[in-house]
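Two records follow; treat each independently.
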Amino acid sequence: MYQIEKIKNQQLGSRLEDELIKYILETPVPIGEKIPNEFELAEKFGVGRSTVREAVKSLVTKGILEVRRGSGTFVISHYSLEEDPLGLNRLDNKYKLALELFDVRLMLEPEIASLAAQKANTEEKKHLKELCDQVEALYSHEENHLIMDVKFHTHIARCSKNRVVETLIPLINSAVTTFGNLTHRKLKRETLETHRAITDAIIQGDSVGAKCAMIMHLTYNRQMLAKMANEKDE
């Protein structure tokens, strides 16, 4: 009986862990901000405080939360160690990190988009259009589009059918998330137009067009980020 009860508690803790991550991303709770206390979380999710402690402990282990004695529990990353194996989102200067990530993205993602245009099958192209539509709908309604944006870029990487590119997906995800958390929808028109251009080129099998559209997308984003970083330093 004890063993059955223990398994049930573990399953509940795992489900609450997923709900907590969803809450952090969709609220959103920015990196460096505190989440509600144990009592408030137990009440919010309708579980016992021991279940909350188990879920929080797991997220601390995964590098998402940090418990500071006397202060509370804080978000230190939006990605777990498994999703962000290089620990990039734990670096302090986010603007410098984001610009360095763009340097790497410019080296990689245009060629990835080009490969995707050559190798994506009909079903994959259909799904890419669906993701593009969903990002556009969320963005247009001023809703949090970041999770879907990550899925959009992830899908393009998978469409390249390159196994090495697959291993770089966490790096791309970290870059997209870092940029999104810093800019907060400041490039609505440019993002929607270039996402659509990338999607159309891949659907049409236009590898050069996909490459150029991705360069344009990343260039707009990097210029905005550089401007914000300069203003922050002034």
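The next record belongs to a different protein.
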Amino acid sequence: MNSTHTTVQRRALPALAMACLLAASGWQSAWADAAPKVKFATSEGDFVVEVYPDKAPKTVENFLQYVKDKHYDGTIFHRVISNFMVQGGGFDAKYAEKPGRPPVRHEGQEALAKGGDKNTVGTLAMARTNDPHSATAQFFINVKDNDFLNPTPIPPGDPVPRFEYQGQVYENTPRAKLANAPQLFGYTVFGKVVSGMDIVNKIKSVPTGAGGPFPSDVPKTAVLIKSVSLIK
């Protein structure tokens, strides 16, 4: 979406501390194993993503409901930019937009605060309009590290004592004012590709041009999402 190095003397952990650490590691591993996985079967091949309800619960719930409703079956990747991202989930093969449910609240900043991923290669994020809270069904997969899409964390405090963004400095600004600034929201990352990234790379490399209502970035041969299914 700098680290300070200090010298720390390594010590052997007492038995109880070691047991707690192993238990915590086991819990983290179990949580990772519990992350829902979704398979995309496309005309270019299959890939699998996992999603993180612990980081972006409403976003994941929204996405999985579309999966369960078979909303994505028969849609296309309608926007493909080889050095940016591939986007789909909203249009069928005739470029008819599929109706969606009400939009979901933006969770990008909260997800980052919980240790979620930034918009790096292979991550799955929600597409939206200029309104941060407008995401419905469309998603995109980052095919490069897109730092400029990351949400901007807001420092603690209300008012926020000092906050700098793109060269502009805010002093003693009410938190609500910053929290509602659209340019700070970025895009909510809620999952990542865990297998089949080679297929995503095939999709990003297809020839593109004008198509349907879009003047550019549309695959000349449709990349069809045959089905999307929850596999775990």
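Discussion point: Confidence is low (pLDDT under 50) at residues 1-32. How would you locate this feature using only the token line?
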